[in-house]
Specification:
Elements: E1 3-8, E2 14-16, E3 21-42, E4 51-59, E5 65-74, E6 82-100, E7 105-114
Antiparallel strand pairs: 1-7, 2-7, 3-6, 3-7, 4-5, 4-6
Length: 119
């Protein structure tokens, strides 16, 4: 496999309230299996949290969805990657996310795809 990995957001951290959907209208060319994992969640004042979830959707410019999945993080544990979906044929993809945190928080995830085995 030849994974291509992106940090989302590319710089700093994303602020998001629990239950609200956020859009990332920066398109990235992706092809093949797409996976993601939460690598950082920070609450205001460095408050303690136990478990965080982020719902990630993969969409093209026309709104066609190529996958959707919850990714999870437990405090102090680096999670493995979770499969979000498959982008066939190669497309420019944008993200929509919805957070399930105990309070509005900052977060960072890694997103990767492997385009070797999909045409």
């Amino acid at each position: 496999m030849a994974w291509t990995t992106y940090r989302v957001p590319a710089q700093n951290e994303q602020w998001q309230g629990s239950g609200y959907e956020e859009g990332f209208d920066t398109y990235r060319y992706m092809k093949g299996n797409v996976q993601a994992r939460l690598i950082s969640v920070t609450l205001p004042g460095d408050a303690y949290w136990e478990h965080a979830q982020l719902f990630v959707r993969l969409l093209d410019a026309g709104g066609t969805q190529y996958g959707a999945h919850w990714i999870n993080k437990t405090y102090g544990v680096m999670p493995g990657f979770a499969r979000i979906g498959v982008v066939t044929g190669g497309r420019n993809i944008r993200l929509r996310t919805q957070a399930n945190f105990v309070a509005p928080s900052w977060w960072v995830m890694e997103l990767r795809y492997d385009g070797l085995n999909v045409s």
